[in-house]
Amino acid sequence: MHEPRDPEPGVERGESGAVSSPVPLDGDGAVGYRGVTACHAAGISYRQLDYWARTTLVVPSVRDASGSGTSRLYSFRDLVVLKVVKRLLDAGVSLQNIRKAIEALRSRGVEDLAGITLISDGTTVYECRSPEEVVDLLQGGQGVFGIAIGGAFKEIQGSLSHLPAEPAAAGGGDSVPAAGGVAEGSSDVVGDELAARRARRRAG
């Protein structure tokens, strides 16, 4: 008798062989994926999957193996985490550092690892909480200062909305103040001011 084949990606067969509906994108654990399916989806070997489960790096949240005759069932979100671990490995991050990063997240009570954005330089792993906040997960959660250029752009726009501006001088850049405090290239302005004073004196 042949073993039943794994279902197509996105479905799981029940004991009767019926195909259940695809897993919802929110990954609420309504259905599960067997190990072979999880391996194909995440691009990893079954040996990796088994090792990560036994060492509690990525434990199946729908059902863990509990003796002969039972098989692990992974949720959609579990598959996302498996894929992230695989990408970090491909980026050159050691499995030991990946484990430290995930343990750091779990120690903070972060259960939904699939909702976290991780970035890496190939050595360490950072949690990107917002465009302005990045945390080094391997250095005790030490913060890394970030600058969101788009955010700075909008802030400057908002500040300038109630500040004065003037047309740029044709063909000229910023003028440099001369020794007397009068900017070079402003002789025409000074001349106009002197002429206005003379005109006022004549009129007076």
Word description of this protein:
- With 204 residues, the protein is of the alpha+beta class.
- It is 36% helix and 8% strand.
- The protein has six helices and four strands, in the order ααααββββαα.
- The protein has a four-stranded antiparallel beta sheet with strand order 1-2-3-4.
- β3 and β4 form a beta hairpin.
- The longest helix has 17 residues, at 187-203.
- It is rod-shaped.
- The model is unreliable at 1-27 (pLDDT under 50).
Number of strands: 4
Structural class of the secondary structure composition? alpha+beta
Supply the number of helical segments: 6
Approximate shape: rod-shaped
The description of the largest β-sheet is: 4 strands, antiparallel
State the low-pLDDT regions, or none.
1-27
Averaged pLDDT = 73
Alpha carbon gap, first and last residue: 118 Å
Order of helices and strands: HHHHEEEEHH
Major beta sheet, strand line-up: 1-2-3-4
As a percent range, the share of helical residues equals 25-40%
Strand content: 5-15%
Radius of gyration: 32 Å
Draw up the topology in text.
Layout: H1 35-42, H2 46-54, H3 76-90, H4 95-107, E1 118-120, E2 125-130, E3 133-136, E4 142-145, H5 149-160, H6 187-203
Antiparallel strand pairs: 1-2, 2-3, 3-4
